[in-house]
Specification:
The chain is mainly alpha-helical and 193 residues long. Helices cover 77% and strands 0% of the residues.
């Protein structure tokens, strides 16, 4: 298919999707670089090899997985013009995202209670990496939450009618991306010690 084919709206929509995918690929490379640096740093003598993932991060994992399902159903119902159900699932996704952030901070508290800080004499390269990677991910979750608020507002204003659901599709793609990144980071931190 020629990328120059189609109406102006089709071209604009395709460009927006491509920009999002370009951003996702760039962010994926950033997280890959950080986790590679984590692996290389494991050879340092001050590395903490018995670090345990906080229990709150397990809860965060469950919340983010469930939020991917609620986002999937939100998009599905909006496409079928079942607006009330779409709104229920959009708001559910947003609330699960907020709970995810809350449990990330609870996880940070658990790390600090274990005696490890981000910087200073009680910090280590291990925990500094964990803080950095998790905070970077949370920044993207915040971006996803803002996107969800915009989609919720637009859906309330009935802007996703007659198959014009690009905004929801873009938000859903980004939300699934941040979900997959957290699953990857969690499994990485769990298995790479």
């Amino acid at each position: 298919m020629d990328l120059t084919e189609g109406t102006e709206e089709v071209k604009r929509n395709r460009a927006k999707k491509n920009i999002l995918w370009f951003g996702i690929i760039s962010l994926t490379m950033s997280f890959a670089g950080l986790t590679s640096a984590y692996v290389v740093s494991k050879e340092r003598p001050d590395w903490i090899s018995n670090f345990e993932i906080p229990q709150a991060f397990y809860i965060s994992l469950a919340l983010i997985i469930v939020s991917s399902f609620t986002m999937f159903f939100a998009l599905r119902f909006i496409k079928k013009q079942k607006n009330a159900l779409g709104m229920v699932f959009l708001i559910s996704t947003f609330l699960l995202g907020v709970l995810f952030v809350v449990f990330q901070f609870v996880g940070f508290s658990e790390i600090i209670e274990s005696g490890y800080n981000f910087t200073g004499p009680t910090s280590s390269i291990t925990t500094s990496f964990i803080y950095l990677v998790v905070l970077l991910h949370m920044a993207h979750v915040f971006a996803g939450l803002i996107a969800l608020l915009v989609v919720i507002y637009n859906h309330y204003k009935l802007k996703y009618e007659n198959g014009k659901t690009l905004g929801v599709e873009l938000a859903a793609t980004f939300w699934h991306f941040v979900d997959v990144v957290w699953i990857y980071l969690f499994l990485f931190l769990y298995f790479v010690k």
